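Comment thread on ticket #2218

A.B. wrote:
> Attaching the input chain for the structure job we discussed in standup.
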Amino acid sequence: MIIKGRIIKEGEAEGEALVSTKPIAFLGGINPKTGIVIERGHPLEGESVSGKILVFPHGKGSTVGTYIIYRMKKLNTAPAAIINEYCEPIVAVGAIIANIPCVDMVDISKIKSGDFVRVKGDTIYVNE
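C.D. wrote:
> Ran it. Output below, let me know if you need it in another format.
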């Protein structure tokens, strides 16, 4: 399946999708040293985002989340790419400064955790 989106940060990445139907807070929601979701009660609690194609509706929380994304990139715990329904400024700036491919305006219900996903510019290839 091929899905088109809007480029937030140009780039290419591929890997296993990790999908959440709930927003993600990078500050306090993900441990930047391990890449593991630590937000209590979050659908991805206990899961690692490291090296995954992280798919979620949008970010939430503090603007410090931008720095957390950048820190994760430096620690090699960041996702390989980010796909959102709507990429708000916290995630957008984080992806840009961390050089993580990011696409939004995507119907994320078409992607499931475990799918093989390739992001290339504004195009998302799922299980191809």
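A.B. wrote:
> Thanks. Noting for the ticket: The domain at 2-126 is CATH 3.50.30.10 (Glucose Oxidase; domain 1).
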